[in-house]
Design a protein that fits this description.
FAD/NAD(P)-binding domain; Polyamine Oxidase, Chain A, domain 2; 7-stranded mixed beta sheet; globular
Amino acid sequence: MIVNMQRRDFIKHTLLATGAVALENCQPKDPYAPRKYEGQIAIIGAGAAGLYAGYLLEQQGANYTIYEAAEQIGGRIRPLKGLADFDVELGAEKIRGSRSTLYDWAKESGASLLPTSGTDYYQIGTLLRTEAQWNTDLDFRLAMLLSQQARAYSGNEATLAQLMETTKLVAKVRHIPDALIANNYGTSASRLGLLGVAEAEATWSAGRDNYLLGNRSLLSLLEEKCKNVIPKVVLNKQIKRIDFTNSPIVLEDAQAQRRFADKVIVTVPLSILQANDIQFTPSLPEAKLTAIRNIGMGAGIKVALVFNRRFWEANMGSIYTSGSVPEYWVSSAGRSTSSFVLSGFVTGERAEALSGQTSTVIIQNLLKELDTIYGKGTATAALTNAKVMDWGKEPFIKGVYSFPIPNGGGLLTRQTLSQPIQRKVYFAGEATHYGGHSGTVHGAMESGRRAVEELLRDVV
């Protein structure tokens, strides 16, 4: 425990020194403003980290270009029009916490911020009840207690599954910590390292309230704030090789065309680095390669189910089920009175199992599971539209978001991943955030800020 606290204190002090915790917009008082960089900067990836890095460089008057492999910006932010009478988020949906630039941007834009309040319901067997209703069930209470303990774990390294086994949590409620903790962290109970979870929870600083945007999509917010950045994004341009042996740095795309830059900020998902989809010359340092291997990222699927009526409780927040999808929440709450949308989110082993099925089969099976909960044919008869988004099959994403694996994926590992190379190549993206905000949009943005600050510090 003492060692863990020393690591946390070290990381917190490092974050405070780099300015990665408390983000502010670039103002004239910014200590890096006088160091205007005249060279050419390349940003790889137009997700939240890349766009925000571009936003900050734009304020500095820097020369930069953003190269995006996909045909659209946003990365793991992906709104879909036409499925319902509002933009349905197929990727990131919630603004997590009220102490972040993302939240501030939403407030400044006049967006309707809807707190994700509501009563959560938990399935045990065929029964669906609230926490208060289940509170007389000892096994349920133990499952909830174990979920709390997992967030503050301080023993020898263990997975969540091992903790459930050690504490002899009965099978009928094991899906509850799996849903509340593992699925939320982007994986399964058998793959999630609890020391990394505890570090992330201890250093989280954004606040615990979550919000939905009631009258716009997350992407539209980024597009509005980054309107001067978007013209500098080159779409459908997959960078396959970065050669920083000499100056300038050589960037080679999938068509073997070369481009040149003096500095590069790499913001691609961790999974892209793990798959060696970008070749670095010279090779990345061994410490960074080890860090890439020692942080998890895997399969994840989000399913949007649109119904013509609400058959769930009016006060419902989330449903935690024992079926194929650990959690559903009401995406239409506060957004529509005519489209009733449940969003289901599944990661890890369950997502891998679903990924081998067609969208039609997935939707049919999920409706059957909901029918079991709400009554025969209830969900099936009310369905009007649906969409399955399999993030593991997206060629330039290959998963949902990073998570701590056993004996790896902690904050020091993420810090190692974030380290610049030779004052030429810088790294951003949610997986590089070593202050507890990995796996979030605002964490990705904060990492973009850190990378820009590192780059400007290196200007001599």
